Amino acid sequence: MDKVKALVAELFMFGLIQLLGIYAATRLLVQQPELYILPQIPLMVFAGIFLVSVSVMFIAMHFLKHKFSFKLLFVFLIIIGSQTLFSAFFSNTVTVILSLAVVALWIALPYVAMHNIAIILAIAGISTELGFSLSISTVLFLFGILSIYDVIAVYQTKHMIKMFTGLMDRGLLLSLIVPMTRSWFDKTSEVKPKSGFMLLGTGDVAFPLIFAVAVSKISIVSSLSIAAGATIGAALVYYMLITQSQPRAIPALPPIALCSIAAFVASLYI
Q: Where are the domains of the chain?
């Protein structure tokens, strides 16, 4: 796959997640008006959950060497995310059946294409749920803090890279996978850093959607603007990645966050 096709593939998946989440959010707000007044998760509580989650991941990587535990976590994320997404369109029974079907297909078809489908559904659903639970001001603050954290974790402490590769070695690949010189039908077990694939972490895709869903309660135009801005940010990340003199991981969240916020501000004047 050449660089243009890879860019198109990345932006398609990135944009699809944003649109799926926003559309699901608008349907859920109609079906469940109480979501407009859903109690918000306090900033410090969310920050605490984030820090605990990262710590637990590092501890798990140290003590749990078998891939089964990590694959089980991925299955849990698929079920939670896809159920939230499917619930906007189907009955409870159909939602459960479809979620289990996605898990079954992910297990039966361990290929890059199927992995991406599962990740798309999981991120869209989980981000929608979180978007309803966080205020706009909280998301904006988190965008800033996590962008700084992303830079430090990738360029300084490098623990983000260590955690990402450690989870990958244990079968937990929390990213969209874009084949550069490989195939969509290669097995996910063959995906490694610098192995012909480009990887975009789930957090880099999820946070713009969380922001867009939080904003959807007041303006769908602003939500769509955020999605468009985030997609432009993802394109900038791709450009930064392919124009490096030496291939290495880069912090993707800062440009995505900056473009998302800029698009949101611009939408307020439309």
A: 3-35+42-267
